[in-house]
């Protein structure tokens, strides 16, 4: 009995100190240091761990999901847009919500980079999540973690896999327009170019192919695939890998001149369902972007086999997508005393 009392006393003390340290994110690295859970597939954990808000904002996940449910019910494409935001955040200075900063006296916004301008969207949904979180737990949940939670929630609500999400990222006080232009791969990339740009982030070919599977939802503008229809190799001919009827359909959406903002689904068979049809379409010459097609035909490394494997086995794709999302979400986060928790995702404090 005495032993039990001592043990219980210890538990209560441990609980209280954990509560105190987590109520002050940034002081909580007694928990988040080396050996904290969070890393998977041998990836380093960088101090992120799934229970980061367990005591400081236990309702965080529910708040995120409830806003996502409404936003995606209203417009199913929003799931795709939010998944992409996390990707475009992580490839520029790491997953630090730099993409969310608007132009200001000290910030040149990444929103105007080549890959982002007139293209990335979903900022109002992030604002709504942030507003609700600020009400429930002021200055506790970072915008970078909101992006990561929104990406996972959007995947799940679209029918895709879930994963245990490491948390504890903090927000940058800077943005980088030039890094956004240089690090995010363009849609007409060669396979070698894609591999190089993913390697720069510590991501390998397996990650490249699995994460490209994010194109199982969402749409792209004519401007991003026009080159394939009219002048793929500078010889005024279309991309020969395009299946014929698909090619004619695309031409009707995307004329040779004009129509740059017309949109076409990345996975025309199930554009709001997260599944493995994206990979089957690539096998059939019906992938939309050059960067999708070259995963099969680019003839570098092992990517062709991976496309075939994910086309054949949806479960394999889902498992690898989850692993690779965790890896992408771990790209150089700010932790401990670095960065800040923004009050408004669009502005530094
Ligand atoms: C492999 C290199 C990649 C390239 C070259 C690429 C390129 C593109 C392009 C050009 C668009 C259309 C943008 C527009 O028309 O405005 C797009 C959309 C999208 N991308 Fe990627 N992407 C890549 C990787 C990824 C990754 C890793 C993810 C997430 C895991 C992702 C998720 C999405 C989603 C969901 C959309 C649709 C967004 C919407 O409908 O709003 N992409 N991508
Ligand atoms: C990709 O498109 C850009 C802009 O249109 C162009 O300058 C570049 O040459 C293209 N790259 C390839 C590999 O076709």
From TrEMBL:
Keyword list, A-Z: Calcium, Disulfide bond, Glycoprotein, Heme, Hydrogen peroxide, Iron, Metal-binding, Oxidoreductase, Peroxidase, Secreted, Signal
Protein localization: Secreted
Cofactor note: Binds 2 calcium ions per subunit. Binds 1 heme b (iron(II)-protoporphyrin IX) group per subunit.
InterPro entries given in the database record: Haem_peroxidase, Haem_peroxidase_sf, Peroxidase_pln, Peroxidases_AS, Peroxidases_heam-ligand_BS, Secretory_peroxidase
Record keyword Glycoprotein present: yes
SUPFAM superfamilies per the UniProt record, alphabetical: Heme-dependent peroxidases
Domain Plant heme peroxidase family profile, residue spans: 47-349
Positions that bind Ca(2+) 2: 216, 267, 275
Enzyme class, spelled out: oxidoreductase
This protein's GO CC annotations: extracellular region; plant-type cell wall
GO function term, MF aspect, one: peroxidase activity
Gene3D superfamilies registered for this protein in UniProt: 1.10.520.10, Peroxidase, domain 2 (1.10.420.10)
Binding site for substrate: 185
Chief subcellular location: secreted
Signal peptide range: 1-23
Known cofactor(s): Ca(2+); heme b
Catalytic reaction equation(s): 2 a phenolic donor + H2O2 = 2 a phenolic radical donor + 2 H2O
GO BP field: anther wall tapetum development; hydrogen peroxide catabolic process; response to oxidative stress
Cysteine disulfide partners in this protein: 57-137, 90-95, 143-345, 222-254
Binding site for Ca(2+) 1: 89, 92, 94, 96, 98, 110
Catalytic residues as annotated in Swiss-Prot or TrEMBL: 88
Key word Iron present: yes
E.C. numbers: 1.11.1.7
Family (UniProt): Belongs to the peroxidase family. Ascorbate peroxidase subfamily.
Cited function: Removal of H(2)O(2), oxidation of toxic reductants, biosynthesis and degradation of lignin, suberization, auxin catabolism, response to environmental stresses such as wounding, pathogen attack and oxidative stress. These functions might be dependent on each isozyme/isoform in each plant tissue.
Protein name: Peroxidase
Gene this protein is translated from: LOC107957949
